[in-house]
Amino acid sequence: IAFFQKDTIMISEWVSYMMFYLLATVFCAVLTYCMYVHHVHQKYDHIPGPPRDSFLLGHIPTFSRGAKSDNLVQDLFLQWAEKYGPVYRLNSFHYVVIKVHCPEATKTILMSPKYTKDPFVYKRLFNLFGKRFLGNGLVTAMDHDDWYRQRRIMDPAFSSTYLRSLMGTFNEMSERLMDHLEEIADTKTPVIMHDLVNCVTLDVICKAAFGVDLNLFKQTDSPFQKAVEQCLKGMVFYLRDPFFRLFPKNWKTVQQTKDATELLRKTGNKWIQKRKTAIENGEDVPKDILTQILKTAGMWDSNTETLKNHELMLDNFVTFFIAGQETTANQLSFAIMELGRHPEIYKRAKAEVDEILGTKINIPYEDLGKFTYLSQVLKETLRLYPTAPGTSRWLHEDMVINGLKIPGSCAFSSYVSQRLGKFFKDPLKFDPERFDVNAPKPYYCYYPFALGPRTCLGQVFSQMEAKVVLAKLLQRFEFSLVPGQSFDIKDTGTLRPKSGVICNIKHCS
């Protein structure tokens, strides 16, 4: 018994020692990390910026509150830019991002291929709450050579020749919207325009990019629109609130986001396998985005057909599936909203469309370049409402911007730059005349599709589609906004109208 008691005492002492050393180690680790955070603060605190919410969390509580509320975080960035100037810092633990709204620096950094995308942001988009999301696709590829290889392979799907061939698809899918609006106009019931243009843009990207005709106007239970919205919504929480998934009240949202991500990747796998089978059977296939996606993974060389390459195909499928429809739908919604708010702009845009199209049903490619004022309306829409409002770059060496020595990461917000009074007179006014051919051109402060080598590959595709849809709408219908709705902006990963733009639709008299 004495031996047993002695053994128990020794074990107890050993456990006590271990607990002491473990706590001491944890304490030292926390102290070391706090000292490192303090060092980072000293390194960056010469740069102006809003007061931190806390020593360790920095501005994370502010971002978390913004993600969970109806307040637009971009408006907060705009307030800080007006208060602290064209260069200011934001803290998150030991990480600091520098917000830059200086045209000269914007030109230098975004126009150069040597400044890669910020890994802190874009590597996090590899997964979404543990599910592979954008992976190493075209948007998130960090390595310039890897990105360049993918971009060059994708280019044929966005060549002018191929885009011209898509006019039939743009017209066909837009006609489905017009047919649907015919029915609505007869019933004289208000309609949420964002939901309808979302159907069009998703139909377009699926048909033009992947060869699949969803015909969403005849489906009442398609999961794709909700999946895209859920992924983008989850992305906001995932990027801005590192503690989001830790709270049980958020687990439902986390699971819904994971399910939505899995749905998109499973859909991609199904459509990719179908296209591969068609190619292997010697069938003629279009040189669309899906065909180019297969090339990015080395499909033509069976020796390179690996799991890694297959996942890369799915990465690019999800990238184009989301980016190819969401941003255009949001732009169209904002354009309809602003036309409804400004009758004089509406009348001028409609007069131009009527003069160019007359009674034509299908819009030929040659007519797109004639929509001068309509193009100005779409550009001004993107100035006030850039649907993908920012990007970031990693500085591998210190740089002096606006007299301040800047190390590390720089973030650029087109939303902020395009709403600053020093760049645009009366910046909150919707004024398409800013983009008249004779108007002074903004100097590297207007970049809704980013700038430089990593500018949006699909911007011409997007604007062709937007012109066709909006021109047909103006040609065939009169629309007015239902009074009392909000004109606020909702941030769900991309910017969209909070109300969805509720309109009354009438046949043109």
TrEMBL record:
Look up the record and name the cofactor or cofactors this protein needs. heme
Ranges that cross the membrane: 14-36
Q: Which PANTHER family match?
A: CYP46A1 PROTEIN-RELATED, CYTOCHROME P450 FAMILY 46 SUBFAMILY A
Keywords of this entry: Cell projection, Cholesterol metabolism, Endoplasmic reticulum, Heme, Iron, Lipid metabolism, Membrane, Metal-binding, Microsome, Monooxygenase, Oxidoreductase, Steroid metabolism, Sterol metabolism, Synapse, Transmembrane, Transmembrane helix
**Which residues are listed for heme binding in this entry?**
456
The protein in question is named: Cholesterol 24-hydroxylase
According to its UniProt entry, the protein's GO biological process terms are: cholesterol catabolic process
User: Per the UniProt record, which EC number(s) apply here?
Assistant: 1.14.14.25
Function, as annotated, reads: P450 monooxygenase that plays a major role in cholesterol homeostasis in the brain. By promoting constant cholesterol elimination in neurons, may activate the mevalonate pathway and coordinate the synthesis of new cholesterol and nonsterol isoprenoids involved in synaptic activity and learning.
Q: Does the keyword Metal-binding apply?
A: yes
Q: Which InterPro entries match?
A: CYP46A1, Cyt_P450, Cyt_P450_E_grp-I, Cyt_P450_sf
Q: Where in the cell is it found?
A: Cell projection, Dendrite; Endoplasmic reticulum membrane; Microsome membrane; Postsynapse
Q: Does the keyword Zinc apply?
A: no
**How does the record classify its membrane topology?**
Single-pass membrane protein
A GO MF label = cholesterol 24-hydroxylase activity
Q: Name one GO cellular component term.
A: dendrite
Q: In which pathway does it act?
A: Steroid metabolism; cholesterol degradation; Lipid metabolism; C21-steroid hormone metabolism
